Fold this protein.
Amino acid sequence: GPVGINRNGKPVAVVISASEYAQLEALKEAHLKQAIEEGIGELKAGKVSDGKSVIGKMRKRVAG
């Protein structure tokens, strides 16, 4: 199982098996792919704003 490593009583690292590490990396990759696909979908649907327009909207909200 995982082995925790502490420095000055605080956890700083965990040692896991190579197979557990591979599983975690595969999960991270799958999550990243899903996030990218969602982003592409939002781009295609026109749900993305440029930074300048977002800042402008925020300024209007703050100004009230």
Observations:
- The chain has a mean pLDDT of 95.
- The CA atoms of residues 43 and 49 lie 9 Å apart.
- The chain has two helices and two strands.
- Residues 18-44 form the longest helix (27 residues).
